[in-house]
Structure prediction request, 292 residues.
Amino acid sequence: MYSSIRMLMGVGALLLVLAACKEDKEKSAEAAEALAPDVRLYALDGGTVQVNNLELFSQDTTYRGESAEFADAYYVVVHPKGTLMWDAGLSEGLVAMAEPFTSPDGAFTVSRPDSLATQLQAIGMTPADIDYLSLSHTHFDHSGHAESLPNATWLVQEAEYDFVMSPEVQEQQPDMYNAVNDIENLQKISGDYDVFGDGTVVIKLLPGHTPGHSALYLELPEAGPVLLTGDMYHFERNREHRRVPIFNWDASKTLESMEAFEAFADSTGAAVYIQHSKKDFARLPLAPKYLN
Prediction:
């Protein structure tokens, strides 16, 4: 009888210990959740790119005769320590045009439905509320309203800054240079950069498309880790087959960056959003597009 009582007492004690451990774990999880910053992501519409010659997006003739329509999203990341705009869509001059604009070589037809100010108003902001701007790279479809943020500091990879400010770009691609040359507040960075110092918003250097091309890593309270690709990939088939556009600055560095990107995505478990993918743009909740 006494042995049975001792056994019951032992079981009771074990249950108390297990209950205490569970309570401690729950308190730790609650504490961690309370400490996690409230990071919010808004995806806004920077226009549409109709690619009339998809063959440009591979080093071979795979896409000959094909065309595709790309989304051109830009993003607002709201963090307790500040607000970051990632990319800047197509030129706002397109908003006033009655018809889409086709490039002289016929390769692209572009349009933009709405202005920066109107779209920010939909999420309760103005251009003056943006503290930081970072462009995945300085191509025309990512820098459209870059000079329309009066209080923003441009966080720019040093290699990208040197590239877009070079005499070659000024002479051969003046529109690309003119989109950013009047930004007065800038901070040059080199390599991966933790924007708010807590690991929740990190610019990842992945050169190849341009010298300072980057992606953006986010840790969102409910959605978890997210990776915005920049132009690491323009559409799903190029990610699947690791195809490199013929206009990339360096094809070999692009392939190296693709490997680094995928390894990082695997290690973090991040959900990958291809910025030019209409499918991925549609995966976010509807207007204003918001993921938390």
In short: DSSP finds eight helices and 14 strands in the chain. Residues 1-9, 11-18, 27-34 have pLDDT under 50 and may be disordered.
